[in-house]
Write a structure and sequence with these properties.
The complex is a heterodimer of chains A (about 230) and B (about 300). Chain A is mainly α and about 230 residues long. Chain A is built from nine helices and no strands. Chain A starts with a helix and ends in a 7-residue tail after the last helix. Chain B is mainly α. In chain B, helix 3 packs across helix 5 (about 90-125) and helix 9 (about 190-195) runs antiparallel to helix 10.
Chain lengths: ~230, ~300
């Protein structure tokens, strides 16, 4: 049996999970990072920074275990992933639980980067010019600063793809999700080397492709960049 | 509009002028980087617990006792017992030693290898540089945990192998940074001067270029420390890191995970807190070190 027949059916599951996790991490990471930068050195900034650092420090498998524990205590059951519901909404809800566990860590990273990138941009001359012209705080922060600060963050979202797969490996194992990442762990434990080789290659290709896509995305985000 | 007069004395003391004693300087740094000071305290706590684990642990971490299996609070065990009746507190204290050994060991090993590769690559250039850079490209396409997993699986579970498995994925990151630093340093006038007085290439690389890459190296190493500890926990959690009966925090979580979440939640909670605190401390420390040594990134 070719390895691809074993791997292919598991790809959509991990893809859904990764997409949701990335969505969550940008949804929370980007705005919180902007708030943290705009309110630099206030108590709000300090709180957000501690939250984001603790997000980077919490092992995602522990977070997943804690979520499972909460499910056991409150609902007396844990989410089952072996046969997902047909209903799209139910499926989204089901997958958003592990996605939140993985995404928390990524959102912490995005938040930190957005903050430092925003702070750097806000020291630039054109920001002072915009302020001097009498532009409102909101227009300066979002129209001028964020538009420029978001570029390095997009790079990181590309690198994040690699980061996410690391988180998915443990999270899929904890939640018992039959995806690609857990399959890698199983294949390693079974000493099933053809599968391990194929999966590692597959993960490598995905990471390289994501970075390539991010490079392409640059052109539409930054008018200064043009690929000949 | 009135110009606010500058209080020179206050500004000077805020900038740390006139502080001579070592303790005074340390206090000034701690005041300027309060989060970093917290990180240092947490990290020193980890080091202290790791070194004096034998003295601190109230019981033998590997001694099983069927009578106290899964014993709750209030028994003979200060912080309860796991399913084999081993003392949880003692296991957590001994886990600090494993975390510290793997964290420091893999960071030091990975950074040393990375420095050698990066320095050679940036200084020799030519075909050597071309080949190593392509190998590094390939290595960087794989996420840290995936590579560590595959390495750990092929080496087999043991303490030394876990250190090696975590250190190898660190090499490309360190090598890249050191190489780019070396590239700019080799054009500096002091390197030219060293060449002019007839110093050998190796001697220039080691005596002049290497010390100048130390600051970014320290920044990188402290930043990697937290992720090394976290990777060890993940590897052990997946059963590919530190083998039984060693007390590894990640391992303690995996053996307790499925079965005892309901009956003995403390088996999940306490080792997780230990991992989080250790990594949190290392991350805070890494941030402060970066701010101090790399002013361009100072926020």
């Amino acid at each position: 049996m070719p390895a691809i027949d074993e791997i292919a059916p598991r790809i959509p599951i991990t893809a859904k999970l990764a997409a949701l996790a990335l969505f969550f991490s940008v949804l929370f990471g980007l705005p919180l990072g902007v708030i943290s930068a705009v309110k630099q050195n206030t108590w709000l900034d300090y709180c957000l920074r501690v939250v984001s650092l603790s997000g980077l420090s919490l092992p995602s498998f522990w977070l997943a275990l804690l979520i499972l524990m909460a499910f056991v205590t409150w609902f007396g059951t844990i989410p089952i992933y072996t046969d997902p519901p047909d209903n799209l909404w139910d499926e989204l809800l089901l997958y958003s639980i592990p996605a939140a566990a993985v995404g928390f860590r990524s959102s912490a990273l995005i938040m930190r980067l957005t903050r430092s990138s925003m702070l750097e941009v806000m020291r630039q001359d054109y920001i002072r010019t915009a302020k001097a012209k009498g532009a409102s705080d909101r227009s300066v922060n979002y129209g001028h600063a964020l538009a420029n600060a978001v570029l390095p963050v997009v790079t990181i979202i590309g690198i994040e793809a690699a980061f996410l797969i690391g988180g998915l490996i443990v999270t899929e194992t904890v939640f018992n999700i039959p995806g690609v990442a857990r399959f890698l762990v199983e294949a390693i434990q079974w000493r099933d080397y053809p599968i391990v080789q194929n999966l590692v290659m597959f993960i490598g290709v995905i990471v390289v492709l994501t970075n390539f896509l991010v490079d392409l995305l640059y052109v539409s985000l930054d008018p200064r960049i043009k690929y000949e | 509009m009135a110009i606010r007069p500058v209080d020179h004395a206050a500004e000077l003391s805020k900038a740390g002028a006139g502080v001579e004693s070592r303790l005074g300087k340390a206090w000034f740094l701690a005041k300027s980087y309060p989060l970093g000071a917290v990180g240092l305290i947490l990290f020193l706590g980890l080091v202290f617990t790791g070194i004096f684990a034998d003295v601190l642990a109230p019981m033998d971490p590997v001694k099983t006792n069927a009578e106290t299996s899964l014993q709750g609070p209030g028994g003979a065990h200060m912080l309860r017992a796991d399913m084999m009746g081993r003392d949880l507190l003692s296991r957590i204290i001994h886990g600090a030693r494993i975390s510290l050994a793997v964290g420091l060991g893999s960071t030091i090993l990975g950074c040393s290898l990375g420095v050698i590769v990066g320095l050679a690559s940036g200084y020799l250039l030519g075909w050597f540089d071309l080949i190593t850079q392509r190998i590094i490209d390939i290595m960087q396409a794989l996420p840290l945990l995936v590579m560590a997993l595959v390495m750990a699986a092929s080496l087999g579970p043991s303490l030394e192998n876990t250190v090696i498995a975590i250190s190898i994925p660190l090499v490309p990151h360190v090598a890249r940074v050191i190489r780019s630093n070396t590239l700019s340093l080799r054009e500096m006038p002091f390197v030219e001067a060293a060449k002019a007085i007839g110093m050998s290439e190796t001697r220039i690389a080691v005596k002049h270029v290497l010390p100048n890459t130390l600051a970014p190296l320290i920044v990188l190493a402290t930043a990697q420390l937290g992720s090394a500890i976290l990777t060890e926990a993940s590897l052990s959690f997946l059963g590919l890191g530190i083998p039984e009966p060693h007390a590894s925090w990640g391992r303690m979580l995996s053996e307790s995970a499925a079965e005892y979440v309901r009956t003995a939640p403390w088996l999940v909670i306490f080792p997780g807190i230990a991992i989080s605190l250790a990594v949190f401390g290392a991350n805070l420390l890494g941030d402060a070190v970066r701010d101090i040594l790399d002013p361009r990134q100072r926020s």
